[in-house]
Each structure stands twice: as C-alpha cells, then as structure tokens.
Amino acid sequence: MQSSTPAGRAGRPRSAAADTAILAATRAALVDLGWSKLTLGDVATRAGVAKTTLYRRWAGKNELVVDAVAELFDELELPDSGSLAADIEGVVLQFATILARPEAASGLMAVVAESTRDAALRERIRTSIVERQKRLVLEGRARAEARGELPPEPDAGQAGRTVDLIFDLVAGAVVHRTLVSAGAADEEWVRDLSRVLLTGLAGTVQEPAAPR
Amino acid sequence: MQSSTPAGRAGRPRSAAADTAILAATRAALVDLGWSKLTLGDVATRAGVAKTTLYRRWAGKNELVVDAVAELFDELELPDSGSLAADIEGVVLQFATILARPEAASGLMAVVAESTRDAALRERIRTSIVERQKRLVLEGRARAEARGELPPEPDAGQAGRTVDLIFDLVAGAVVHRTLVSAGAADEEWVRDLSRVLLTGLAGTVQEPAAPR
Amino acid sequence: MQSSTPAGRAGRPRSAAADTAILAATRAALVDLGWSKLTLGDVATRAGVAKTTLYRRWAGKNELVVDAVAELFDELELPDSGSLAADIEGVVLQFATILARPEAASGLMAVVAESTRDAALRERIRTSIVERQKRLVLEGRARAEARGELPPEPDAGQAGRTVDLIFDLVAGAVVHRTLVSAGAADEEWVRDLSRVLLTGLAGTVQEPAAPR
Amino acid sequence: MQSSTPAGRAGRPRSAAADTAILAATRAALVDLGWSKLTLGDVATRAGVAKTTLYRRWAGKNELVVDAVAELFDELELPDSGSLAADIEGVVLQFATILARPEAASGLMAVVAESTRDAALRERIRTSIVERQKRLVLEGRARAEARGELPPEPDAGQAGRTVDLIFDLVAGAVVHRTLVSAGAADEEWVRDLSRVLLTGLAGTVQEPAAPR
DNA sequence: TGCTAACCGAGACGGTACGTCGGGTCTTAGT
DNA sequence: ACTAAGACCCGACGTACCGTCTCGGTTAGCA
C-alpha cells in the first residue's frame, strides 16, 4: 500500500539536543555526586528531560556513563613538541590531567568495575574509549619515524603487541598513580615515567640491532 | 576492626567466627553477583548472621569489601627463582592470577572507584592493600642487591620514588591489561613487561653505572 | 460529540467509522481488562486508530466510557405483555441482563464512582444514560393508564417525584443485587421485586385514601 | 537448638498504631482527592509511614479502601423510635448521611466497580461491609415483632430472601438516588421510600394476613 | 486538476505513580 | 552485652500510561 516509509521513519524524530544535554548532565552529576550516588532520575532532571527519554536511549547507568566519559578523552591530542620524548610527556600529562577530573576518574573506574561481569559493557568500553585513543600512539610513532628517531617497524604483528603494551603501561601507570597511590601525576613523575618507557622500549624492541 | 574486650567486659563477647564467615561470604557473593548486585542482606544470609551483626562491625559495603579483598593479596609471595628478572616475572604472574579472579577484580575496582570521592576509604585501601604489598618490591630489591645484580641504593628518597614508580607501573599495567584491554596477562606478556621494566630502570635510575 | 462542519469547512472531514470502531473497542477492552486496566493506548490499538484521533474526540477515559456504555442501554425496550406487572418484570429483567454483562457493570460503576468528584461527568451520565431511559417508565405508565390499570396522574409534580422514586428503586435494587450482593437478578427475584413495588406504589400513590 | 519461637515470634512486631493511621489517612485522601487520584504514596506520607509498610499489610489500593470504608459503616445503629416505620426511616437516613460523605461514596463505588472483575475483592466487600450491616435489618425485625407490628416469620428460608430483598432495595435506592440521580436523600424522600417499602412488604410477604 | 486545510498514523516527549528492592536503623525476644 | 529476626523509614529503581507534541503523508471539497 504505502511504500515511502523506507525503514524507520514515521513518528516524531528523537531530539538531538537531548543526547547532548543528557551526556553533559551525566558528567555534571558525576562531579557533584560520584558514581554510586548518581541516579538516572537526577541526571534526567539536570538535563531537563524525562526519565523515559533517557531510558529510551541508554540501557542503564553503565552504558550512559561510558558514553559520557568517552567524550572526555576525545579532547586528547598529540602535541608536536619536536621530539618523541617530549611528545610522550605531553600526551601523558594531558591524560593525567583528564584523569584528575573527578568525573573521569569516578566514572571510568566504576564502569571498569562493572565490566568485569558484563562482556558487552567491556567491549563497549574497549571500542569507545581504549581503541579510539590508540590513534595517539600510532600518530606518535609515525611522527617519530618521520623525524628519524625510530626505525620503521617491519613486523606488523610485533608492532601491534608493542602498541598494546605501551598503552597498558602508560594508561595503567597513570591510573594507578592517580587513583590508588593517590599521588599527583605531575610533570616530574611523568618525566620519570616516559624516560623509563623510552629506555625500556629502545632496549627491548630492536633487541639484536642496537647494543646501545 | 574491633577491640579485644578493652576493659569493661560484661555481656556476651562477639563471635570471632562471625568475622571469618562474613568475609568469606562477601567474597563468595562477589563471585556470584559482582559488586553492584551484592547486597549486605545477602552477605548476612550467606554468613548465617543477622544484618545487625554485620553493621556492628563494618560501616558499610565499601569497608567490608576492602577487607574481604585485602585478604586475597596476602597470598602473594616472592618466589626465589635465582635472578631478579625471574623473581619479577614470578610475582607479577601471581598478581595477575589473583586479579583474574572475579572477586578480586570486581571488588577492587569498585572500591577504587568509590574511593575517588571518599578520602577515608582511599586511605584504607592504600594501607590495607597497596602499602602492605610493597614489601614484595623491597624484598626483591634486597635479594637482588645480595646477589650483586643491583648496586645498593644510596639515596633513600630516590629509592622511595623508584619503588613507587615500579609499583604503579607493574600494578597499573597488569590491571589495565586484564580489565581494560581484556587481554590475558600470561607468561609471554609478563616477560615482555618485565623486560621493558628492567631495561628502563637500569638505563634510567642509576644513569652512569649500568651497561647491562 | 462533534458539530457537523459548523461554518469553516475546508479540509478532510473526520472519519465516521472511527467513532464506531473506538466505542466498540472500548467495550471490548472493558470486557477483557475492566475499567482500571483499560488504557487509551490499548483502545486506540484495538480500534486501529492513533491515540491522537481518540483524544481529538473525547476528553478522557471517563467521557469515552460513558458514551460506550450509554449505547448499551439503548437496547432496552418495553415489551407489551398485556399487564403492567408483566411489563415491569420484562423491562427489569432486560435491565438486569444488560447489567450482568461485564462491560456494563464495570464501566458503569466506575464512571459513577468518578462522577462523585466531577459534576460535569455526573451530568453527562444523567443525561446520556439515566434520563434517556426514563422513557420506559413513562411509556409503561401511559400504557397502564390506557389499559385502565392506573388512574391518570393529576399532579405533574407528584408524578415526577414518583417516577424518580421508581427509577431509583428499580435501578438501585438491580445494581445492588447484581454487583454487591452478588446474587442473580433472575426471574424469581424480579417477580418479588416488582410485586413489592406495585403493591407499595398502589398503597402509596393515592395518598388521600389512606390516612395512615 | 532453640524451641521457643512458637510460630511467628521473632523480630520487631508490627506497629498497631500504623494500621489506624493508615486507614484514617486513606479516608482523608479520599475526601481530598477521590479514588482515582488517590495514590498509595500519598496515603503513606499522610500517615507518616513508609510506602513499604503499607504494602506489607495491604495488597493494593482496593483492599486498603475496602477496609477504610468498612469502618465508616460501623457507625450505623438502629434508633429505637417506637415504631417500625420510624425505625426504618431513621436508619435509612443515617445510611444516606454516611453515603453523602465523599470518602464513602467515592471509595465504595470504586471498589464495587473493581470488584466486578475480582471475586476475592467482591467477597471481601460482602463480608466486611454488606453482611456486617444486615444486623440492622434483623434487629429491626426482632424489635417490630416484639412490639407486635409484625408476626413472627415462620419460614427461615423465606425470611432470608426477604431480608436480602429489603437490603438490596434500601441500599440500592439510596445509592442510586445519591450518586446517580444526584438528588438529596432527605427526610421527605426517605419517608416516601419507607412508605413504599412497608406497604409493599406488608401486601406481599404475608399475603393473606395484611390487615393494616 | 490541482490547492489546501483538516485529517490521519506513528511515535517521541515531559510527567506522575507504580510496586519492588536495598540501605541502614530500631525493637523485640532469646542466649 | 551479645545474637537472630524482622519491621521500620527512606530513596532509587525501571516500567507503564498519561495527555501533548511533532513528524510525514493522506484525503476530501472547492475552485
């Protein structure tokens, strides 16, 4: 009979503004209340939105917070400071700065905790946050190769393993420093970290070639 | 946790068995339900204890879980494998093994998340879990010095900084690998990690000395 | 319900079929769900109509159900059985039969309950249902007078009062019997009722005769 | 181990005051809001009680309101006015007065409406309200017999049927008059009603006798 | 035949109340 | 003074309907 309802078309379309408002409200609530006292009702109120609207778009607190936090890490960008070491220090410092913000720390750790029992959530975290930021490592390597600081990586498999290890080392160390050891991830600490990292990788990755 | 009937003594003394039962029940509940679905009522039931009893001894869910999880890490011990590298690999692997258990991962991450907004809880985690296990780093260093693998650290302040950094690196990397990257922290990965670590530290901390 | 294109006329006229479908769907929903679980969304779905269409024509659940139920009572008609007593029994039995239908009972009682706090609704019920059926009492009296069973009523005011009383007695008794006492309003019961009624009225209406 | 927990014994006993407060709050809410806008949350608040306490004792709105309304009718008592006619008028007037109160009308009709789809509720209404008040009819008859106004009823079955009919007639008529016809059930109307009733019953039930 | 206004379906929207669940406290009786 | 049991107040949960509001699309009736 009718043909011009291509797939899902009829009815009032979803408000695009609502998404934005809800994610912002979620971050604000994380700042004020932290994960455990954050309620979806409160988020809805802050966003000027009905609770139902929120549930229509996200399955629950976990999914909502993942999205809200993921946006935070999109701010990260690789500074072009002229040397690999400086580049690393710069981006690690940015990461530490973001993680020092209460909405990032509280939200991220909580969803990671939840994800230990929810594979779908774990996957969502990985794609929305982790994989998404590996771009920084890749960019950094490319830039360093261009500068001649690093030889081109011949083996793609090995390269992937190294990127993963770097990421776990950096992200893990910053998180642990900030949240568990309760120390400041300041410039000095970041310098120590990146020095260990660079030296360690230099001496490891191209094992046979460089006797240093 | 509780005093040993300080002075005033009348009345029935607290059951010592209850403490043990409650902590075990807490871990069991963490395994079955995870942090967020764990309820104190359920823990009490599993422990065969009234909710009242539980609240008389712990302030709430957070404190209870910290204690329950802390016990897990007391299992860690430094194997004497003959070389620093092997020692490190051994203990890191143990750590990864414990962290792979659902009650450890779920519980630990959750209380860390909570601790971002609760200084007292953060302190409790630090003393009950983190500082308590730094013994491993210290033992390892001492043993390595005795073997002649490392020179004695002259500067105590510098030594502390290095221990902290090592701890953040190792613990952070394992946690990130296990929970976020969702990769196995297996022997191969641990070998990569400890190689980077040793090389990095050797080339950094005692700059002039070590040619390796 | 709606005017017949009052003056401004352009545009598509309302579907007449929709009204019919909606009222039928309402009765069907009353049968299946009863008043309290009846939802307008469900009625709309059953009628194959959008919720909007429904709200464009009725103010709410109450008004809709009044109209849906009112139609049921238009089925009533006064049988010509030859005697006043038989006529009364016949019509009362019809009334009882209708009231035994779940859509009538459930819907009618519910709107009456609502009407205790809503004068407009009460008026709507009175005009759409009650007054509309008083025709039966008037017809019955006229027929009885024609037969010579009753003397002509001289005083119009008094006549009105009597009609009202009869109506309250009959309708009230049937409703109470059916819904509250949970007894069947069967032929035997109806015979008892109409005998009491006729006797009582006969001894009463012609007041002046009996000094009491 | 323990034996002296006879059946249901352990734990804090239910507050008796809460029941009273809740029923009173229910009636107050009926007055202010009517049935359909009455919410259990609001009743709980008015009663100074948690919603859970309320749900622990009543299955829902219907059951609660039945109990709340039932208490109202316990106020009814048969006045001893010296004659059967006057006794009837007196008690009918009392009944009408109670029914004129908004909490009675709104609540009673609503639960009757609900009861059309819920046999358990219907039974609860019958026992808690209807049967409970038949005492009035029985008392009235006994008193009239003692006065010699009525001959003793020989047949018990017939007596029951008559009592039921009277009850349906009186209660039904008053309800219909008050709620549907929207007329006042005042002294004059009550006199008309009871006259019809007495006459009708006198001429019917003891067919042969009726001297009057 | 083509305009155009009022209609129609679908479905998202801001709300309100639901009935349930868990947190932590308190009141019993029993050890 | 402890314990188990369980009722208590509180507040959040996720769901269901309410009645309103856009949408895109249809369908008379007048020109």
UniProtKB/TrEMBL annotation, chains A, B, C, D:
<dbReference type="Pfam" id="PF16859">
    <property type="entry name" value="TetR_C_11"/>
</dbReference>
<feature type="domain" description="HTH tetR-type">
    <location>
        <begin position="16"/>
        <end position="76"/>
    </location>
</feature>
<dbReference type="InterPro" id="IPR001647">
    <property type="entry name" value="HTH_TetR"/>
</dbReference>
<dbReference type="InterPro" id="IPR050109">
    <property type="entry name" value="HTH-type_TetR-like_transc_reg"/>
</dbReference>
<keyword id="KW-0804">Transcription</keyword>
<protein>
    <submittedName>
        <fullName>TetR/AcrR family transcriptional regulator</fullName>
    </submittedName>
</protein>
<dbReference type="InterPro" id="IPR036271">
    <property type="entry name" value="Tet_transcr_reg_TetR-rel_C_sf"/>
</dbReference>
<dbReference type="InterPro" id="IPR009057">
    <property type="entry name" value="Homeodomain-like_sf"/>
</dbReference>
<keyword id="KW-0238">DNA-binding</keyword>
<dbReference type="InterPro" id="IPR011075">
    <property type="entry name" value="TetR_C"/>
</dbReference>
<feature type="DNA-binding region" description="H-T-H motif">
    <location>
        <begin position="39"/>
        <end position="58"/>
    </location>
</feature>
<keyword id="KW-0805">Transcription regulation</keyword>
<dbReference type="Pfam" id="PF00440">
    <property type="entry name" value="TetR_N"/>
</dbReference>
